[in-house]
Specification:
Blueprint: E1 3-14, E2 20-31, E3 42-45, H1 54-57, E4 75-78, E5 93-94, E6 99-100, H2 110-123, E7 129-135, H3 137-148, E8 153-159, H4 167-181, H5 195-218, H6 231-246, H7 249-260, H8 271-276, E9 281-287, H9 295-304, E10 309-313, H10 321-324, H11 326-337
Parallel strand pairs: 3-4, 3-7, 7-8, 8-9, 9-10
Antiparallel strand pairs: 1-2, 2-4, 5-6
Length: about 350
């Protein structure tokens, strides 16, 4: 499988918040040969702490013989601004100061991310995306893109996502930020600061991603006389340490603020009006156990995008089901795309 890693540099990106980022880099991956099939491009918008290579974090969906097979359909994914996987983010050097942005990194919204994606799309010579998809905050991006630039895609597939970050979601975000802020090393001067806070934040996030059903299924202890070192506790430690090894607290903090800012109705009368403006063929997928973006939020999207199709999959893994229930996703997406 041909894999192309690229960087697109922008002199300036004007942000929705009123500030501007200079010397912006957009990191992206292309899986497959895009020049051989520009009319069948699949663009995947990644979730919170993922990177721009979906074969890394969605291997059951992207790869040879999978639903999104780069040998048949080239796959494009761009790392969102504010992340730490190659695109400009808090760890990048601020050209005005010569030092990393860290806590001074400005608020970036998903509309800013879409603006950058649109520039990259034009740079790659893509006229119309065949399939534009994303789960969780990847869905935020995909929705915004088709709303901001009507006709971007022929087929829009939104998975376990919402038209607006709910108070419930924002409360989880703030709890994670409070954990990071409680770490005295997260001081805006130390690039390696906030690691303990990030570990705690990840532990909080996992509760929203996996939920009660998942923990009770996978983290049960077998010794009825056990007094400590419980499986669920060591799991939280393990997952927190795992994220700290590959991510940084400043980027995590910035992305959480981006997540909270998501609101399709901002400046567009209402969420309903914004969704009604989307004309692409649309599939909306909900996960029956999702407690972060419960299915009523996907029903809302499907009810207000003209002629959208709603499908629901079953999972005991709650929100993370979009990363795990790949056989079910493959089935509903294949049916929608007539593959």
């Amino acid at each position: 499988m041909k894999v192309t890693e690229g960087n697109l540099e922008l002199k300036t990106l004007q942000l929705e918040c009123g500030e501007a980022l200079d010397n912006v880099n957009i990191r992206y991956h292309i899986l497959g040969d895009i020049q051989k099939n520009l009319e069948r491009v699949i663009w995947i918008c990644h979730a919170f702490t993922a990177n721009s290579n979906p074969a890394d974090w969605w291997p059951e969906m992207v790869g040879q013989g999978r639903l999104f097979d780069p040998e048949k359909y080239p796959v494009v994914c761009a790392n969102i601004i504010g992340s730490c996987y190659g695109s400009t983010g808090p760890m990048s050097v601020n050209p005005k100061t010569g030092k990393p942005y860290l806590r001074s990194f400005p608020l970036v919204t998903f509309r800013d991310v879409v603006t950058a994606n649109q520039i990259l799309k034009e740079h790659l010579g893509i006229d119309k995306i065949w399939v534009l998809t994303g789960g969780s905050i990847g869905g935020f991006q995909a929705m915004e893109w088709e709303c901001m630039y009507p006709g971007t895609t022929e087929n829009l597939i939104l998975i376990a996502t919402a038209a607006e970050a709910s108070p419930w979601v924002k409360a989880f975000s703030q709890s994670q930020r409070l954990a990071i802020l409680a770490d005295g090393t997260f001081d805006g001067a130390n690039p390696n600061g906030g690691k303990a806070g990030l570990k705690a934040a990840r532990s909080i996030a996992l509760l929203s991603y996996r939920g009660r059903s998942s923990y009770n299924l996978t983290q049960q202890d077998t010794n009825p006389n056990q007094l400590s070192n419980f499986k669920a506790c060591t799991y939280q430690d393990y997952q927190g340490d795992k994220l700290v090894k590959r991510f940084d607290a400043y980027s995590y903090f910035a992305l959480s603020l981006m997540l909270d800012s998501h609101n399709m109705g901002r400046g567009r009368v209402s969420n309903e009006a914004a969704l009604n403006s989307i004309k692409a063929r649309t599939l909306v997928v909900g996960i029956d156990s999702d407690i972060l973006f419960p299915v009523e939020e996907q029903h809302f999207i499907a009810n207000h995008i003209p002629s959208a199709v709603y499908r629901e999959i079953h999972s005991q893994f709650c929100h993370d089901g979009f990363l795990i229930e790949c056989q079910q996703l493959t089935s509903v997406i294949s049916e929608f795309l007539n593959l």
